[in-house]
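Chapter summary example.
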Amino acid sequence: MNDLPSIKAVLEHYGASIRRDHGQANLKCPFHGDSHQSGTANLDDNLFVCFACGVQGNSLQIIAQQEGCDIRGAAKFAEGTLGHSVQKVPGKHLSGRGLPSKQGYNSGGSTVGTIRRSRGA
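The structure predicted for these 121 residues follows.
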């Protein structure tokens, strides 16, 4: 994922204020009128999630959601606006499709800590 633009740069572009350069950062979500720190960014893994409005994903997914484009369009946006060139545009696994809307906690058993998704509609 080193090829992706920095989640910090993307969130700051949309108005977030982040004082850290690595690790986990709690912040006011720039995508809704947030009065509390309901968003969290993992600056090392390049991920963001807002527990209030539901915006989530990596830096290209966030750009694609906010700009109403696909991942390739998001890569072009990152290059033109943020000055970050994406050498290889990720495949559909990073397009945002198939991401769980909410991740719950399991209540015991040997599958604690794993994400369980059902197949099918």
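To summarize the output: The two ends are 29 Å apart (CA to CA).
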